[in-house]
Amino acid sequence: MPAFSFNDILLLATTLFSVGLAGVLVRRNMVFMLMSLDIMLNAAALVFVGAGARWHDATGQVMFVLILALAAVETAVGLAIILCLHAHGRPTLDADTGNLLRGWNHG
Amino acid sequence: MHALALLAASVTVVGAVMVITRRVAVHAVLYLVVTLLSLAVILVMQGASFAAMLEVIIYAGAIMVLFVFVIMMLNLGHPDSAREKEWLRPRAWCGPGLLAAIVCAELLYCMGTFSGPARPFAPITAHDVGLSLFGRYVLMVELASFLLLAGLVSAFHIGRNRVGGN
Amino acid sequence: MGEILLPLLILCPLAASMIVSVSAGRMGACAIGTVACTGVGISAVISIILSITLLSGPPAGVLQVTLWPWMHIAGFSADIAFMLDRVSMVMILVVTIVGLLIHVYAAGYMRDDPGIARFFGCMTLFVAAMLVLVLASDLLCLFIGWEGVGLCSYLLIGFWYNDPANTAAARKAFYMTRMGDVALLCGLLLLATATGSLRIGAVLAAVTNGQLAPSGVNLAALFILVGALAKSAQIPFQTWLPDAMAGPTPTSALIHAATMVTAGIYLIARLHDLFAMATPIMALTAILGTLTLLMGACTALVQSDLKRILAWSTISQLGYMFLALGCGVWQAALFHLMTHAFFKALLFLTAGAVIMRTGHEQDIFRLGGLRHAMPGLSAAFAVGASALAGLPLVTAGFYSKEMILSGVWHVHFGLTREWTLSGHPLWGIALLGAFLTALYIFRCVFIVFCGKKQGTSATGRTSRLMSIPLGCLCFLSLCGGVIEMPDTLPPLHLFSTLLDPKTPLSHADEPIWLVLAGALAPLAGLGVAWVLWGRATPVMHEIPGQAAIIRLARTGWGMDALYDRVFVQPFRLLTWLTHHDVLAHAITATGRLTQAVSGRIFQARTGFLDILSIWGSRGTGWMAYLLGQLDNGRVRWYAAWIAGGLCAGLAMAVLS
């Protein structure tokens, strides 16, 4: 008997997903937005693994591996962009200042 | 439900909440590591020990180290912490928080209709995952490798521009 | 032994490429040239050994090597596998031997260039990719080689990248061939879904067994034809090849004359069973080939740049090969491919030596009377020119062109039950093309090497390293054709029997005037060229540029301008529009306009309806303002909109 039923997993994943979503929407610091995105990705991955365990299918963990690859790429590129913006002399990591193409709003 | 399972689940959720409410980025990273580790515990309880291992090694290990490095290089100080406090006022909270709560409620309502007979518990080993990954889903592996390559190239490109900009 | 030699054949140039590229800046020019030539030389020796082994075996013998399985998924499998049969044997001999001669020449030609390591790295990589292309027994593996040669072509056209014109030419070649590659990939996917494998043998067997519907066969053949047309610079993709002459001359000789541009011909010859099932596509191939050969010859006649003349002549000769493929005589196409590789490499290399010794002067009207200054080069160029023109009996070009012409005469396309297409008009145009070929190439010979001495003077000597390959190519251009003769001469069919032992190509009922006409057309061209440009006081020193049609022909019939209008300018406009965020501007402008109108109306009248209209227009104005606020560039707002959409979608799902 598994410690969790699939319903519990769905409940937990939904909560995690909402917390991550709230983080993306609330935080203006881009580092925090990336971390919240990672929480959301983890919630999705958890559902896949839970479904895999529920129907005893390895596909769930295959999807987990792919999500892991996606998260790695997303984090690497996102952090590279943050570093790049920071090195270009942007004063803060505020995502809202990045609203202009070819340059940014220093206000 | 198992007491340990309950503990792991609550640590996960509390850790996630702490991540999104911290003012100092390093604290948030540490809480995220805690969240990921307890998520790994949950994965083990699901019989997915391989996924749990990957979660610990790659997520909590490699990706979080990336975060720590970047935060070190950004060199955030006291004014940033103060600014974060300024940004985390209830006025900024309520709208997005409401939206996220609505999404959460709707999702919970949707999945409330799910039910079905439980199967006997049987772990899925790395062997099964490997067979599936390099058998039926080998094209997905190729696609993932394309994605990683694209990520590598773009991260390199962005980083190089940064050097050129200075 | 063949199992080891076949991968080694590809590995040698690849290893040379790796060594040369990694050693950039650490090895002298001499050492780099030696390594590159050794790599290609070893593979030339291996290809000769393999050919002897293959020919001493049974007539239909094939050497198969599967290196490793690439992917096996449900319903489809692909291997990294190579296959040596008689078609690919001819190709590896041409690629490695002509490649070796050009590498030796290039070792002398590029000796003083600072980028020699990069140059030889790309050239040897090209040889390796070309060998992958011709040896692949799996179409997906062939595609790797196909893209590899395209990449090397791009790198070498833009070799002198300091000049923006060169990089533009490289990009143009890349884009044009990439369009064809997309079509080729579509064709391959079509075949893969229909047959479940891309092994050439399996695909052809499935097609000939009727596993594919006729429309499917036609569509796949059309896609593959488009890919081949783009690679071989045929109408409508011909514009990239003349610009590709921006690269170093050995590159033009190896990639843009002898081997890479013939990849399209090789592909269609390899899949000739598929094309034989698609009669309309065969007719299309023949017609496009005919048009291209005529157009290429006419354009070459009015060019004044030596390398561009040769480039247009390549396009025209490739047109002959496509004509032969379209008429089903793929053996003739491969034969012409081989002889063309010999004499066109010779012409390019000689032109390169001439250009090098006259201080990079490419305008034929500024060269002149070089016969005395460089007798050896003049003789080599004349040999190449006569082989290109196909002067009867003594040159290789004559026999291959004759084989194509007789094949075209006998062909008959049964497109539908009522409508058939005879090969006779195509034969007439091809004969006219042969006349024009002799005319334009001897125009070039007479203007450059005969006549009065012009301002440029020749300096220096051609080094031994460069003259030995020229001598070998001269020999091949003269004598490489006697292995296949028309039936009216001694009926010798070594080449076509070699390729296809079961059904040798023979036209015993061929009228003798057919061969005579093919022999006389180049002679007539030579005579007219002599009258116009050859005598001590030429009738015409330069074709007058005033006539509109000549000006048009000089620019390649305005195709570049046309493509610029039709494809490039609209795309530029699109990028400009997205760059300037026109949608947001339009929304804001609409809002401002309606607000302004409402203000005017308010000033003018105050009736009930007017107030209604005013508020209506104000409302639309505000709406426009709000819409404009939607794309404010703030990531968090976008995320919020996504979340809101998720909310709404879930709500609809829950409530319904």
UniProtKB/TrEMBL annotation, chain A:
Transmembrane segments: 6-27, 39-56, 62-85
EC number, UniProt record: 7.1.1.-
Keyword Transmembrane helix: yes
Catalytic activity from the UniProt record: a quinone + NADH + 5 H(+)(in) = a quinol + NAD(+) + 4 H(+)(out)
UniProt-recorded Gene Ontology molecular function terms: NADH dehydrogenase (quinone) (non-electrogenic) activity; quinone binding
Keywords: Cell membrane, Membrane, NAD, Quinone, Translocase, Transmembrane, Transmembrane helix, Transport, Ubiquinone
Pfam families given in the database record: Oxidored_q2
One CC-aspect GO term: plasma membrane
Main location: membrane
Keyword check for Transcription regulation: no
Subcellular location field: Cell membrane; Membrane
Domain of life: Bacteria
Topology within the bilayer: Multi-pass membrane protein
Biological processes, Gene Ontology terms: ATP synthesis coupled electron transport
Assigned protein family: Belongs to the complex I subunit 4L family.
NCBIfam families reported for this sequence: PRK05715.1-1 (NF004319), PRK05715.1-2 (NF004320)
Role summary: NDH-1 shuttles electrons from NADH, via FMN and iron-sulfur (Fe-S) centers, to quinones in the respiratory chain. The immediate electron acceptor for the enzyme in this species is believed to be ubiquinone. Couples the redox reaction to proton translocation (for every two electrons transferred, four hydrogen ions are translocated across the cytoplasmic membrane), and thus conserves the redox energy in a proton gradient.
UniProt-listed HAMAP family: NDH1_NuoK
Subunit organization: NDH-1 is composed of 14 different subunits. Subunits NuoA, H, J, K, L, M, N constitute the membrane sector of the complex.
Name of this protein: NADH-quinone oxidoreductase subunit K
Automatic annotation (TrEMBL), chain B:
Transmembrane regions listed in the UniProt entry: 25-44, 56-77, 97-116, 137-158
Keyword NAD: yes
GO molecular function: NADH dehydrogenase (ubiquinone) activity; quinone binding
UniProt EC number: 7.1.1.-
Enzyme class: translocase
Superkingdom classification of source: Bacteria
Family matches, as InterPro entries: NADH_UbQ/plastoQ_OxRdtase_su6 (IPR001457), Nuo/plastoQ_OxRdtase_6_NuoJ (IPR042106)
Protein keywords: Cell membrane, Membrane, NAD, Quinone, Translocase, Transmembrane, Transmembrane helix
Catalyzed reactions per annotation: a quinone + NADH + 5 H(+)(in) = a quinol + NAD(+) + 4 H(+)(out)
Entry-linked Pfam families: Oxidored_q3
Oligomer and partners: Composed of 13 different subunits. Subunits NuoA, H, J, K, L, M, N constitute the membrane sector of the complex.
UniProt family annotation: Belongs to the complex I subunit 6 family.
Name of the protein: NADH-quinone oxidoreductase subunit J
Gene transcribed to yield this protein: nuoJ
Automatic annotation (TrEMBL), chain C:
Keywords from the named record: Membrane, Transmembrane, Transmembrane helix
A Gene Ontology cellular-component term: endomembrane system
GO biological process, one term: ATP synthesis coupled electron transport
The NADH:quinone oxidoreductase/Mrp antiporter transmembrane domain, residue ranges: 136-412
Keyword Protein biosynthesis: no
Places the protein is found: Endomembrane system; Membrane
Topological relation to the membrane, as annotated: Multi-pass membrane protein
Domain NADH-Ubiquinone oxidoreductase (complex I) chain 5 N-terminal, residue spans: 70-120
Molecular function terms from GO: NADH dehydrogenase (ubiquinone) activity; NADH dehydrogenase activity
Top-level taxon in the UniProt lineage: Bacteria
Transmembrane segments: 31-55, 90-109, 116-136, 142-161, 182-206, 212-230, 251-269, 281-302, 309-331, 337-356, 377-399, 426-451, 463-483, 512-533, 637-655
InterPro entries cross-referenced by the UniProt entry: NADHpl_OxRdtase_5_subgr (IPR018393), ND/Mrp_TM (IPR001750), NU5C-like (IPR003945), Proton_antipo_N (IPR001516)
Xref: NCBIfam families: NDH_I_L, PRK06590.1
Descriptive protein name: NADH-quinone oxidoreductase subunit L
Organism: Komagataeibacter diospyri
